[in-house]
């Protein structure tokens, strides 16, 4: 059976990283059977990044490559009805979420107003992680942010980028249903991966304040979240 390797769960979401949660949500929504293995150390992953999958001996990294592999191999129809214009929208949303990732990550690890709550919440749920180990991860992420560029912004400048991304989502996510209609597609799984990691985290960042103030974003997040619950999965089978 296919195995998904991703970061641990946190605050009620199945993966505290937007990319891993995106793949998890996609598999659930598309009906792909899989085993979910949570790991902390990404050193053995392709390019040293999570998530990745092992499917009948084949190892694949990168969330978009994983989704493309699953659609082709298992002949998934979740995106089959999308028009060319809708597929272009999906591509643009994916790239925008890549930008939002850095701001969301920055809010947890770099901004000292919110880092202690993130650290304490994570260690409380995963006590096998030491405070010393968490500080090493913080230093590592600080280097990543510097070289990527977001670490050279002031907090206000960094959040302005993320809020601009969220504003676009708030303007395109419907109050009912999903981005492309009555049924969710891979686009909705991707949006959920990031919104859930903002909405369900009890850390009052500017990103969370924005999401929680927009009923359509909250409703979309909660619709997908409910569809992924064990009760929903069992009732649909």
Write a structural description:
The chain is α+β, with helices and mostly antiparallel strands and 237 residues long. The protein has a single domain (3-235), classed as Up-down Bundle (Glutathione S-transferase Yfyf (Class Pi), Chain A, domain 2), CATH 1.20.1050.130. The protein is built from 10 helices and 4 strands, in the order E-H-E-E-E-H-H-H-H-H-H-H-H-H. The protein has helices at 18-30, 63-74, 84-109, 115-125, 131-148, 155-172, 186-199, 206-212, 215-227, 230-235; strands spanning 3-6, 35-38, 52-55, 58-61. A 4-stranded mixed β-sheet has the order 2-1-3-4, covered by helices on one side. Helix 7 (186-199) packs across helix 9. The longest helix is centred in the middle third of the chain and has 26 residues, at 84-109.
Helices and strands in order, then pairings?
Elements: E1 3-6, H1 18-30, E2 35-38, E3 52-55, E4 58-61, H2 63-74, H3 84-109, H4 115-125, H5 131-148, H6 155-172, H7 186-199, H8 206-212, H9 215-227, H10 230-235
Parallel strand pairs: 1-2
Antiparallel strand pairs: 1-3, 3-4
Key descriptive features of the protein:
237 residues; Glutathione S-transferase Yfyf (Class Pi), Chain A, domain 2; 4 strands; disordered C terminus
Number of helices: 10
Largest sheet: 4 strands, mixed
CATH architecture: Up-down Bundle
Distance between the termini: 18 Å
Estimate nothing, just give the exact number of structural domains. 1
Helical/strand content category: alpha+beta
């Amino acid at each position: 059976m296919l195995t998904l390797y991703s970061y641990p769960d946190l605050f009620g979401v199945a993966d505290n990283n937007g990319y891993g949660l995106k793949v998890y949500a996609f598999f659930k929504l598309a009906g792909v059977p899989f085993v979910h293995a949570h790991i902390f150390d990404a050193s053995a992953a392709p390019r040293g990044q999570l998530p990745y999958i092992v499917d009948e001996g084949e190892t694949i990294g990168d969330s978009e490559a994983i989704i493309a592999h699953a659609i082709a191999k298992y002949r998934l129809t979740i995106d089959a009805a999308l028009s060319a214009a809708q597929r272009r929208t999906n591509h643009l949303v994916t790239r925008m979420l890549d930008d939002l990732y850095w701001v969301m990550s920055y809010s947890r690890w770099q901004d000292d107003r919110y880092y202690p709550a993130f650290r304490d919440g994570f260690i409380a749920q995963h006590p096998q992680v030491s405070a010393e180990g968490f500080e090493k991860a913080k230093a590592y992420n600080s280097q990543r942010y510097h070289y990527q560029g977001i670490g050279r912004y002031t907090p206000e400048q960094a959040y302005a980028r993320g809020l601009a991304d969220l504003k676009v989502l708030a303007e395109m996510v419907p109050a009912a249903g999903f981005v492309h209609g009555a049924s969710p597609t891979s686009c909705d799984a991707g949006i959920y991966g990031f919104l859930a990691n903002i909405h369900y985290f009890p850390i009052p960042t500017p990103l969370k304040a924005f999401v929680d103030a927009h009923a359509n974003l909250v409703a979309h997040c909660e619709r997908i979240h409910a569809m992924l619950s064990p009760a929903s999965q069992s009732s649909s089978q």
